[in-house]
Structure formats: structure tokens, C-alpha cells
Amino acid sequence: MEEQLPGIILKLRSSELWQEVEFEVLLAHDILGDVNVYNKPDPQVCRRLINECTSLGKEGEFSTSVTELQSNYLKYRPPKLKNLICLVKHWYQLV
């Protein structure tokens, strides 16, 4: 039996273009607390989360919960680094 992810799958159709787009909306948990450019999360929280996800075989399950942290990290980085990270993420999804 396939394990269900904690989210919903939506499909949008265009009657004019005869196309359909399917996407998944995942739940995000506030596991890191108040995170912004000036307020970084407690490293212990991140370590515990990584260790627990790894031991349960659920790597990447909480990726939506760290989206804000990723966004803040990339905000002031050079475009070449942003492009490299996007490329690596794309390659990872292909595997």
C-alpha cells in the first residue's frame, strides 16, 4: 500500500487551452519558531529534526516547514548561487 503524504492534490483545467495542471499542497508545521533574516533557528532544533527524520526514513518530509528559512538564506545571495541550488534541486528530483 502506498503511503499518503500530508497534503491535498489539486487539478486546474483550462477550457480555453485544453490543458490541465496538477499540483500538491503540503502542510507546513511551525517547527522552527519565529525565523527571519535577523532571527535564526536554534541549531539543536534543526539537528533533532534531521536525526529524527533520518531514523524514521522520512527525509525531506518537513521541507515545506523550512521554506521560509531557505527563502531568507537565498535573499541576499548572488544569482549564480541561487541558480546552482535550483539546478541541484532539479537533478535531485530526477533521481
Enumerate how many helices there are, as a single number.
Answer: 3
Q: What is the spatial order of strands in the main beta sheet? A: 1-2
The radius of gyration over CA amounts to 17 Å
How many beta-strand runs?
Answer: 2
Please state roughly what percent of the residues sit in beta strands, choosing from under 5%, 5-15%, 15-25%, 25-35%, 35-45% or over 45%. Answer: 15-25%
What are the low-pLDDT stretches, counting only 5+ consecutive residues below 50? none
H/E order of the elements?
EEHHH
Gap between N and C termini: 22 Å
Instruction: Characterize the largest beta sheet: strand count, sense, and whether it forms a barrel.
Output: 2 strands, antiparallel
Mean pLDDT: 78
Supply the helix-strand structural class: alpha+beta
Q: Which term fits the overall shape?
A: extended
Measured as a percent range, the helix fraction is 40-55%
Domain 2'-5'-oligoadenylate synthetase: 40-94
Organism: Myodes glareolus (Bank vole)
Family: Belongs to the 2-5A synthase family.
Keywords: RNA-binding
Question: Which SSEs are present, and which pair or pack?
Answer:
Blueprint lengths: L6 E8 L4 E8 L16 H14 L10 H9 L3 H16 L1
Antiparallel strand pairs: 1-2
